[in-house]
Amino acid sequence: MKKSGSERYYLVLYLSVWSVLYFALGYFSLLIDDPASRVALVWFPAGVAVSAFLSSQRKHWLLIYIVLFLTRTLLDVAVRHSIGTSFAISLVSLTCDLSVAWSVVRFAGHADDLRKAVVWLIAVCVFSAVAALAGTSWLSMQNGISIAHSISIWWAANVVGNIMVTTVLTGLLRGGGPSLKLRWRSALAGALLTAVSTVLIFTLPPFREDEVGLIYTLACLPVLITVIIPVISGNRAGALVYTLFCSIAIYFSWQQIGPFFIKGLRHGEPLLVAQCYLAGTALLMIFIRIQTDSVQKGQAAARHAVGETAYCLDTTTGVINWDPMTPPGMEKIISAVGSREALFALVSPSVKADIASRWQSALTANNIDEEYRFPLPLADGEELAITERNLVCLPGPHGTVLIGYWSLSQPLITLKTG
């Protein structure tokens, strides 16, 4: 009963977070709508809704749909629409978002990340077009707005909002990357460079029509800085820096300042270029993230194939636990080295001192990247050449634990005795 109550509490909290985020971004989206069509130029809640569905179990989808539907209806009523219009627009919008999530699960649920991204992008474009036709048709009947003018705005707003917000939320939820110290040092430097370069680009004096190539080339500078952050600082840092980049670009674009407001462009075209600019950056980040994750998974598989395994040393008890996925050739090590004392009993005094020194350094510095090679004699006369790398210090259930990786650096050597 207690567990059931706890589950309900976390479910309510989970739904509340998504609802608040949906309302906040929806309110901001409606502040920057198109005055003529009353359609948001970028609909950020679309990405919130799709992320909410994809990050939760399917048994909760109906509940999420209802909560976000009520949130969307309340938002429209509070800002500008009648109850009937709010109800209809909420139905169209949330059904579109649910359809996108369903398509990803149905056609790429167990596929690799690249296929998931492609299916997601196609579904966003297709269902956004259907929703744009249905939504603008309703608004045309109610308010007499032009369908031809509004349908493209609705479609672009939904697609761009999906791409931008999903990029940020998936980056925050996935995490991953180098060590914490390296991540945040490089992330802070990247955030500063992104902010400075974006502000400089968007505050340059107006350019002539014959200088379009130059200004668009300069506009690529903050994009390059932004997309490299996930590679060197991890997905979460990349998501936050991308949010900073988008905030600056949206602020200046809404003030009709920046590289996209060039003489010769017709009304609405600069904002469309800005939408493509931000969405293109997000897509580039997504595919770089997929490629980076794929390389890391391939490296991990290669390490496993050549006989690498991870160990966890509880520094308080001295117990050493090994990765249950034992590669071939490492079974004897795991059976022989079950504790700190067992390891020290096998190695020579000099190796014992080196290992103890590395562990102490890891406790102080939290991370050691340098490799260390040493011989490990076993009781049956075999001697293994071990390479240890990536020694990390983390908090554990009983105190501090050390995580390290061992691999066989050369074939086994048999010492003949007797």
TrEMBL record:
- Report TM segments: 12-30, 36-54, 61-79, 85-105, 117-141, 153-175, 187-207, 213-232, 239-258, 270-288
The UniProt entry, under Pfam families, shows: MASE1 (PF05231)
Q: Does the keyword Repressor apply?
A: no
Annotated Gene Ontology cellular components are: plasma membrane
Q: From which domain of life does this come?
A: Bacteria
Q: Which InterPro entries match?
A: MASE1 (IPR007895)
* Keyword list, A-Z: Cell membrane, Membrane, Transmembrane, Transmembrane helix
* Domain annotation MASE1: ranges: 15-287
Membrane topology annotation: Multi-pass membrane protein
Where is the protein found, in the record's own terms?
A: Cell membrane
Report what the protein is called: MASE1 domain-containing protein
